[in-house]
Design goal:
- The structure holds two protein chains of two kinds.
- Chain A contains ten helices and 13 strands.
- Chain A is α+β, with helices and mostly antiparallel strands.
- In chain A, strands 1, 2, 3, 4, 5, 6, 7, 8, 9, 10, 11, 12 and 13 form a 13-stranded mixed sheet that branches.
- In chain A, a hairpin with a 2-residue loop joins strand 9 (220-226) and strand 10 (229-241).
- Chain A is globular and about 70 Å long.
- Helices cover 28% and strands 33% of the residues of chain B.
- The chains are: A alpha+beta, B alpha+beta.
- At the A-B interface, helix 4, strand 6, helix 9, strand 13 and helix 10 of A face helix 4, strand 6, helix 8, strand 13 and helix 9 of B.
């Protein structure tokens, strides 16, 4: 007869990264066909170096082996002008050997509940919202036991690079590639953030971590300038999502209402796609995507993706429906690329 | 002390009191004729639970059922509409209040697997924000995201029939005044691409569009030389935010026949011009091939004020199906 292991639930503590990583690689290697083991450098970048912090609740057996994790990446957000934290749930896993082996709730739920209690704004923590892209089985468990609800379908907006390259652009805006976060991003963000209800903070601190510091990250920066002033930026990456090979726009920002800069950046991105032999320029967005109408006006078409964002609000006065209408998330706000 | 509350299915004779409470709750009247059309003449049946105090209807939880074809079987999806509580009873909007008790009794009566032997797999709707919040808090509503519409300004269309002053006859499109078995044949040809969708047979189309007591719909059909219906589009003009908008309530065309789609779109543009509309708008499920097709015709996806909510009583009808496998149109709502 198989003995049910004695399980300890506790929060992540400094020094247990290697045990988590070993479990992550062991368990996902068993369940994901195309899984590539994660490096310690990548794990550290995600959970230790993240300027908004990483967090995890763990379940361990008697030998100290990690059996399950519920984890998240902190995300700094400007909420009605005030900097607060939300988090993206990522990398949660549960060893198939013990999944569902506990009487009342599965181990995934058992680690998810203390995570919420520890980090939720209406509990002991600071997170105003949790969002993530759960697989369908995690969505069902999350909805039934962890108060997930639908935040937004994730839409793909895509256009033909050849057509976008031909967009008429104003000569006053110059678009160039650059090797790292361009100068002037903080001032641009401050201007763009004015009057926004909820906006993920895209300042130098965040951008340098998200794109420049990521081990083995291969991102391409575009900067748009009017004279010497930075009026827009864009981060691009080549890759396949849902089998769609494209040059992906992970993130971009222009000043509020600066359609000239947005058009120039899209044309510049399309040139980069063509130079890489890619026919498609694509990005993702939620229902609250700020550039939703502008991008369609530029010729991008909306295509459903197979993903949906789940969310759990930790602010009673701001239910998930409020976040769905006010929070715009981009590909860079996920860990898909 | 107030009289005890009685909660039960609607009975003959409740109508007068129910309509009086409707007016008190919504601040507008509902004619008996329209009420009968919605709740008595629906070919899929009647789903109304009422709460009475002292013989007077003080609350209603109601839905319009639709027969839905899904995975080779018929199921029922019902749109929750006109749910209400008399202002005198609004002190009880909590979990044990009159409204919530009426709603729970309704779900017991009609939900699949419930004690009332009901057969509804999923309830759905586009409630106003206050009702949505109550529904999420007390009644198990699940939000599925903001409802998006495909919208095109008429003057921007490059294929508008209005430019050439074509007539419906020029377009080989006819205005239909009745539906028969050919509607079901058309639906059967479309159904394999739909996932789960309301059975749009003659009875449903007649009831939904041609027998509506208040609204006039244009039912536009393309028929072949043998009189077989190849495609159907249903439209109506509405005033929305100070603009006149032509809403496409229904679009039933096999995606393998884009030329039929072109004929119908031109016909809709023609009608919209007759109706003095500035824009054409419709709902199309993103998984439909028509979702991309309409964008290629100059339609852009725009957010609407409505959030879609569902409550499933059938584990086969999960959020994945709701998001990617449920084919619905504006005509599946009471918003057109």
């Amino acid at each position: 007869m198989t003995r049910t292991p004695e399980i300890t639930l506790r929060e992540y503590q400094p020094g247990c990264g290697e045990a988590i990583l070993a479990a992550f690689n062991r368990i996902l290697g068993q369940v994901q066909v195309d899984f590539s083991p994660r490096s310690l450098a990548e794990w550290r970048w995600r959970f230790v170096d993240n300027p908004a912090g990483g967090r995890a609740s763990l379940a361990l057996d008697e030998q100290g082996r990690v059996l399950a994790q519920y984890a998240g990446l902190g995300v700094r957000l400007l909420l009605e002008g005030q900097e607060v934290l939300i988090s993206q749930s990522v990398d949660s896993f549960c060893d198939p050997v013990v999944r569902g082996g506990l009487a009342r709730a599965g181990l995934f739920v058992q680690v998810g509940r203390p995570y919420a209690e520890r980090h939720a704004f209406d509990g002991q923590g600071e997170d105003r919202l949790m969002y993530g892209l759960p697989v369908s089985s995690a969505w069902r468990v999350g909805r039934d036991h962890l108060q997930y609800s639908m935040l937004s379908p994730l839409w793909r907006l895509e256009g033909e690079a050849a057509a976008l390259e031909g967009l008429e652009v104003d000569a006053e805006v110059c678009v160039q590639t650059c090797g790292a976060v361009p100068e002037g991003v903080d001032a641009l963000f401050a201007g763009a953030a004015s009057g926004q209800s909820a906006l993920v903070i895209k300042d130098r601190r965040y951008l340098a971590w998200r794109y420049d510091d990521r081990p083995q990250g291969e991102y391409l920066w575009l900067r748009a300038q009017r004279g010497q002033e930075l009026v827009g930026w864009m981060v691009l990456a080549t890759g396949a999502l849902e089998g769609r090979q494209a040059l992906w726009v992970l993130d971009s920002l222009v000043g509020r209402g600066d359609e000239v800069a947005q058009r120039a950046l899209m044309a510049g991105a399309a040139r980069q796609a063509r130079a890489r032999g890619l026919d498609t320029l694509a990005q993702i967005g939620t229902d609250a995507c700020r550039e939703w109408e502008g991008l369609q006006d530029l010729g991008l078409r909306v295509v459903p993706s197979g993903y949906s964002f789940a969310g759990r609000s930790y602010m009673p006065r701001r239910p998930v429906a409020w976040w769905a209408e006010h929070l715009s998330l981009s590909l860079g706000d996920t860990d898909l690329i | 002390m107030s009289a005890p509350l009685e909660i039960r299915p609607l009975r003959e004779g409740d109508e007068e009191s129910l309509l009086a409470t409707f007016e008190a709750a919504f601040g507008r009247g509902l004619s008996l004729e329209t009420w009968r059309w919605a709740f008595r003449q629906n070919p899929a049946g009647t789903q109304v639970q009422v709460a009475l105090r002292g013989g007077r209807v003080v609350a209603q939880y109601a839905a319009l059922p639709n027969r839905v074809w899904m995975d080779g079987q018929e199921r029922v999806f019902s749109q929750v509409v006109d749910s209400m509580v008399h202002p005198d009873e609004r002190g009880g909007l909590g979990r044990q209040g009159t409204f919530a008790r009426t709603a729970r009794s309704f779900f017991d009566e009609h939900g699949l697997g419930g004690p009332g032997g009901g057969e509804v797999s999923m309830f759905y709707g586009w409630p106003v924000p206050a009702n949505r919040r109550i529904g999420e808090r007390l009644l198990g509503y699940e939000r599925c995201g903001r409802q998006l519409a495909l919208v095109r300004a008429l003057e921007q269309g490059t294929h508008d029939a209005t430019r050439s002053r074509a007539s419906l006859a020029d377009l080989d499109v006819e205005e239909l005044s009745s539906f028969d078995e050919r509607a079901l044949w058309l639906w059967e040809r479309c159904a394999p691409e739909m996932g789960a969708g309301t059975v749009r047979d003659g009875a449903w189309l007649l009831w939904r569009y041609l027998r509506h007591p208040e609204h006039t719909y244009s039912c536009l059909g393309v028929c072949d030389s043998q009189g077989i219906l190849r495609g159907l589009a249903v439209g109506r003009a509405v005033d929305h935010d100070g603009k006149r908008v032509a809403l496409v309530a229904d679009w039933l065309v096999p995606s393998a026949e884009p030329q039929v789609g072109q004929q119908l779109l031109k016909a809709l543009a023609l009608k919209a011009h007759e109706w003095d509309c500035e824009t054409l708008a419709l709902w199309m499920p993103p998984v439909s091939n028509w979702f991309t097709w309409f964008q290629a015709q100059g339609f852009a996806l725009r957010p609407t004020p409505w959030q879609r909510v569902v409550r499933s009583f059938d584990r086969r009808v999960d959020m994945e199906l709701v998001q990617t496998g449920w084919w619905y149109q504006l005509g599946d709502s009471d918003l057109v």
